[in-house]
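Much of the work behind modern protein science is quiet bookkeeping, done one molecule at a time. The protein below has been through that process, and both of its lines are reproduced in full.


***
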Amino acid sequence: MRRIDELHLNYPFAGARMLSKMLKREGSLFGRRRVSTLMKRMGIHAIYRKPNTSKRYQAHPVYPYLLRNLSITRSNHVWAADITYIPMKRGFVYLFAVIDWASRRVLSWRLSNTLTTDFCIEAVQEAINKHGKPDIFNTDQGCQFTSLEFTGLLKDNGIRISMDGKSSWRDNVFVERLWKSVKYEEVYLHAYDSVCSAEQSLEKYFMFYNQIRVHPANAYLVVRKAC
């Protein structure tokens, strides 16, 4: 599963068929169906343009993307969030993080062994308590983010809701860049024995990411100096 995750990070357009061919060249015996099953468990899928044939639930409205051609130059103008898969020595967990779009600062994060909405809401509430409120909050169209509980939290705080176009990972590109940094600079270098060890190690990494690591998009300043 870890190798599938690595390949998906580098080739997000690759579906189960292409990934199974790549793995076969590396000596793996996983077929397309097995890779497809694992991708579903990991919560990942190939990103490509395709007709929108899905029917949206009335209870879960999808909101328009508000960031196109928007100049974002200050903290708390736009926050963004997403969920990614984190492999461990045995099994895996899901990581949710909230970032400030302008400064790239990781404002809050949570781990969970299930793809529920509650751990996302906890992290967003923590970010609001510590850093104030953004004007706009951007996510993809995942069911956690379209849920009435999640959107209700944002509305109750007077925050405008923005959502990526379907399968448009570039609409939330800075979160995707964060995931790549987290995985190549931290996750893939360790084999977490437990959720507790993963939390402890990730806490150290995010302190490094916010306070020490330089960021090209911020003129090679650390996040806390770019805010």
